[in-house]
Every structure is written in structure tokens, then in C-alpha cells.
Amino acid sequence: MNNDFIIELRKLYKKSDSVEEVAEKINSTNDYCNDFPIPIVQIMKDLDFVITKQDMSNNIKGYIAINNETINTLFKCKKLICVNKDEEFGNQRFTIAHEFAHFLFDFSGKNGEEFYNTYNSDEKETTQEKRANKFAANLLMPKNKFIEKYKEWINGNDCILKLMQFFGVSEKAVIKRIGELQID
């Protein structure tokens, strides 16, 4: 994924105001996004992000830092996404996708601009946070594939568990996605 593609995604969002379209464009454009679970860590590494895990307070899920002097010094990088090491795997993946949304929609992309955002489960859910969560859900659990797998597994045992494993997300994310898509 190159900078021109990121610029195209930002324009698509401004034109359509749809995070679903942006997530769909990413999933349909990149070969590695045909695999499940979606390789969100690889996507971010392809965008020159360093992904790390750290001890954080229980309410902090993660953060994104771009062109931050402290981060540059500590991690020797310009772009970092850090997740709470105590969160379960599916929550960590969702946090990375959530922070990807902030990179796409909230960071201007201007050379040298500093950007920092913390994903805090205790804070009031702003419009930006709702958009980031919606994007993460659409990226990691694409609508058509999610409905297909749900219908395939709904009559058997462990449907929720199978969806969690297939998409690499938490139980909460799967249950919320079922409600969003109104397929139950």
C-alpha cells in the first residue's frame, strides 16, 4: 500500500463519507486482504508502522503516534501503533484497525505533522471514535464474508466461536457485528 493509495482512500471517504466503502476498497485492492483473518499487522507494516505491545492501564486499549519526538527516540520510528499487552488477541487486532482509521481519516498526511491518539475504553465515544470502530469492524469483518460465514455456521455448534476464530476478533466484536448487520 503506497502513499497514492492512502490519498485515494482519503478522497473516497471525503467524497462518499462511508467508512464501509473505504474498508471494502482496501479489502478488494490488496491481495493479502483476501485471507482471513485479515492481516492487519502486515497492512500496517506495509505502511511503515511499527506495531508493539506494552503494559498500559486497563482502560487504555492502545494508541497511535506519528512524528512524535518521544516515540521517535524510544522506538526509532516515525509511525507507531501500540496495543495493551493484556488485551486478548482479537481486541489487539481490533485496536490496530481502529488506529488505522485514525491514520486514514484524522491525520492530514502533511509531511512532518505530529499526530497522537489514544484509544481509551472509558472515554465518551465521540464521532471520530464511532467512525474508527465502524471502520475496524468493516475492515476485519467484511459484510458479505461475515454474512456468508454466519449463515454457514448458524445452525451448528459454536457459531460465535467460529466467527471469532475466522475473523480474528473478540466475542464482543462478533456479537456487535451481528447486530449491526441485522442478520440474527
Q: Can you give a write-up of this model?
A:
By secondary structure, the protein is of the alpha+beta class. It contains 9 helices and 4 strands. A 4-stranded mixed sheet has the order 1-3-2-4, sandwiched between helices. α1 runs antiparallel to α2, α2 runs parallel beside α6 and α8 packs across α9. The radius of gyration is 16 Å and the shape is globular. The relative contact order is 0.14. The mean pLDDT is 91.
Q: What is the average of the pLDDT values? A: 91
Shape: globular
First-to-last CA distance: 35 Å
Percent of residues in β-strands: 5-15%
Strand order of the largest sheet: 1-3-2-4
The sequence of SSEs as H and E is HHHEEHEHEHHHH
Major sheet summary line: 4 strands, mixed
Structural class: alpha+beta
Helix fraction bin: 40-55%
Question: Which segments are poorly predicted (pLDDT under 50) over 5 or more consecutive residues?
Answer: none
The radius of gyration over CA amounts to: 16 Å
Count of individual beta strands? 4
Please count the helical segments.
Answer: 9
How are the SSEs placed, and which strands pair?
Layout: H1 3-16, H2 19-29, H3 40-46, E1 50-54, E2 60-66, H4 69-75, E3 79-84, H5 89-105, E4 115-120, H6 127-140, H7 143-153, H8 159-167, H9 171-181
Parallel strand pairs: 1-3
Antiparallel strand pairs: 2-3, 2-4
Helix pairs in contact: 1-2, 2-6, 5-6, 7-8, 8-9
